Amino acid sequence: MGKIIGNLSAKPIYTYLYGLAFLFFKTSAYIGNFEYKTALVYIISFFILTYFIDRLVFSMIGSGYSALFALVIWMSIFHVVGIAQKIGYPYAYIPLKFYLIFYFTVITLLIFLGLFLIKKDYPIIISKALNVFLSITIIIFSADGIKSWFNTRQENISHEHQIESRPNHDNKEIVWILMDEYGSSKSLEKLMGFQNPMDSLLKQRGFEVFEHAKSRSSTTLFSVYSIFNLDDSVKPSSYYEGINLLRNSKLVPSLEKEGYRFVNLGFFDISEHSMIADRSGYPYTFLQQILSGTLVSMIHSKWKNSIAKSDAYNQDILQKLDDSLSSKSVQKRFIWAHLTIPHEPFCRDSLGNLQEDKSYVASDSTLIKNQYISYLKYGNKRIIQLLDNHPDLKDKIVIISGDHGPRYPFLTDKTGQLHPYLAIRYPNKHTLIDNKEIIQLSSLPIILMQFQFK
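Structure (tokenized):
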């Protein structure tokens, strides 16, 4: 047996082991998404592609190092984003020049291997070392996956919530318009020198503006998750867990018990109500979980987040929101509309003109500020038009908010990240919330339900 293991360890199978280790690594991050069919397709595809890369390189250099070449190629594809982040580039601001320099370096490395190692008698030593290392890595990631599975089960228990049901036939419809990355007016003036006219425009229409509202998180997923989990202050352990908990959130079932119908106009699956479109960068499926952070996912993200596609999403949400408000419903509704305004890509200017796709880096502060403010002005205009076109909204609870404040790397003051915009209009209530100094955005559902179901 020992001789068989020794002979096997000397063979250049480490590239295949790397593919397995990568799968175990990605799976261990959140085992709840695991799909055996997707895993099988990944393994078969990886093995086939590796075989052909190996054979192609071997036919060119005729050396025992062809497996090493294949390994370097796969690692450059799977870990390029992680390397960029290690160097200091923010995930959303990795410039094209980095990719050009990185892959130039990879090609240079491959040439070096071809020139200097091809005649060296190291293949068996390299194979044994990498085979043993990757085998141990697979075992470690397997253990991490089992630990993650137990932690996930415990975490689901810690996020259980209940709310008392008090039937009331005079419940008001709720319309919540969330504008992604819309900071409070105070933080926008401090961080960007922009005096937001939205406060006075909404106050003229009966809204209360909460200048000191706070968000549980500066991340969209966690902020939205906390809203739909009844002021849950327990932060999910990962994006994967946040997606899962949002899919099983507690707010919507509680409202449905009160006779509400939930209308989901957003890019998250919420309480088994499907998203309108996938506009986020979060991994929903097991395949997305595997490919997240790879060159493949970054190319797909670049394609998905073009000006045309992002703008089409917002126009679709605005149209569906307008249609929903124009239609009559037998049931009271909780309408949730999640716009990606003023979040980048900045699709339109303040006049509503469609912009062109632009490349910029995190340090382009003037460009980003101008684009952000212009897009915000456009969003303000569309919201005011919507309110004025639907005067019957005065009989509904209307919430206009951000999920968090602007998070651009050049903003050295990070406090604004946790101060989203928040304005509320509540029928027949002069003051909805007594404490206007600090209100957690995520506590609004409970406050509303206390008013509604008392």
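Residues 186 and 230 are 27 Å apart (CA to CA). Residues 156-167 have pLDDT under 50 and may be disordered.
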